[in-house]
Fold this sequence. Notes:
Layout: E1 5-14, E2 18-21, H1 22-26, H2 33-40, E3 44-47, H3 56-70, E4 79-83, H4 94-102, E5 108-112, H5 118-131, E6 138-145, E7 163-173, E8 178-186, E9 194-196, H6 207-211, E10 217-219, H7 221-242, E11 250-255, H8 260-270, H9 281-284, H10 291-299, E12 308-315, E13 319-326
Parallel strand pairs: 4-5, 4-6, 11-12
Antiparallel strand pairs: 1-7, 2-3, 6-7, 8-13, 9-10, 12-13
The structure holds oxa(dethia)-CoA.
Amino acid sequence: MSQIHAAITAVNGYVPDQVVTNFDLEKMVDTTDEWIRSRTGIIERRKLTGEGQGSSAMAVPAVEGLLEKRGIDAAEIDLLICASVTPDYVFPATSNVICDKIGAVNAWGYDLAAACSGFLFAMETGRRFIESGQYKKVVVVGVDKMSSILDYEDRNTCIIFGDGAGAVLLEPTEDEVGIMDSILKVDGAGREFLHQKAGGSALPPSHETIDARQHFVYQEGKTVFKFAVTNMAQVSYDIMERNSLTSDDVAWLVPHQANKRIIDATANRMGLPAEKVMLNIQRYGNTTSATLPLCLWDYEKQMKKGDNIILAAFGGGFTWGAIYVKWAYDPS
Ligand code: UT7
């Protein structure tokens, strides 16, 4: 009996309309367009506005568009996994909210939080449900409203992040395409360098936590940068080696969009030229759980069936990893 693979059969994204440029940020904190561009590669990012609009407000159009592209009804979804560190609520899970809003009446689902590696971890999980043979349609959505946890007085963090959502549909196939391999890692010792201190059960919200600005992203950029460069590059190289892939064999690197310099270092280690590296950080910044599907969405028309694609990420936790995918369809 041939093996069931989990193939990505559709991809879609959504970003809110409001654009925040580096020049807008110059008016809020002591920074410059030149500094942000040269140190990160970011030119602008998006921001979700509007009373009561949480991450699901971006995930819903991303998933609805996904279903439309594939020509299927929401009732056909078996499972929806939502990767996010900015869920609508502490509970219920944002996946529940999304399923309700899109009418996925036959689905169950849950949220998964692994910061910038969330989409990779969710894809790996979704893959296993498909490979079990029991699940036929699994939606994996990565979404973050980073603007909801950004301190617009902290130039170290507010310039980096943006809001957005991206989604893929996983379906079974017996062809030699789909998710082929993964290497995923965590190291909790890294949690002190990138986190949101308050709001969880360890430090519930209080006047003190608000006064101390502990509900915002905290990052020691330089330290995270060093870990990210080393680990994202190494894991991307390792997955190539484990699958006997040379740089000629790899059609695309889909890197987490945190910093252009981290992306370049990863591509370098893999021996890949810039033309094979997906890049949209200049337009969206770091959308945390959404960077990878937003890249796939932007580059969908350039990928061909059988292309070897390496997705790689590094993020808070620390969490990191790489997934090897054989792309399952040609551009329509
Ligand atoms: O996605 C999750 C994982 N996160 C990442 O992968 C992010 C990793 N880190 C980074 O991307 C970079 O560390 C940053 C973009 C956050 C910062 O870049 P950097 O080159 O590491 O800068 P730095 O923190 O070493 O700061 C260099 C200088 C400092 O000034 P002094 O001490 O040299 O006078 C900072 O105060 O730049 C200053 N600085 C800024 N200047 C203008 C820091 N932020 C800014 C700013 N505008 N926004």
